[in-house]
Amino acid sequence: MIIVPTIRNTGSHFVLKLLGKQPPFGxxxxxxxxxDRMQPDSIIFDHVAVEKKHLYLPxxxxxxxxxxxxxxxxxxxxxxxxxxxxxxxxxDIMATDIAPLxxxxxxxxxxxxxDYLDRxxxxxxxxxxxxxxxxxxxxxxxxxxxxxxxxxxxxxALCERIKPFLDRFY
Length: 170
What we know:
globular, about 35% helix, about 170 residues, Rossmann fold, alpha/beta
């Protein structure tokens, strides 16, 4: 079983494609709401949410977990481009609750991203390969670097709050 808990607009569909899954996803790709159908070959894929932590934290602890990342500045831009509301709570969950469980993080917007994929492959034997093109990019922002984006004050505060987590990647 593979767990893919994500922050909205950070590369969720990219990881599913990396794992060989294409929309429409088959019955082996489940969400927090469909865990009652779990099988050993299931991929559990959903966005993190405060009210679902009791479901996904044990799964993350006990199973292979792959989490895509994009810097919060880029996430903020994606959220604004799609008229999503602030979802900084997702970053707080990732930094505070999920990171200590030592999942495999796969940052999509760093120069050494292939090193992260190589470590995942070496540890798991999966042999995953990619051209690093994000999936579902509507607003042509996948080539941006976080240094190209002017963050709002809420996102600056978020980055300060989770700085030790972000410093692992950026």
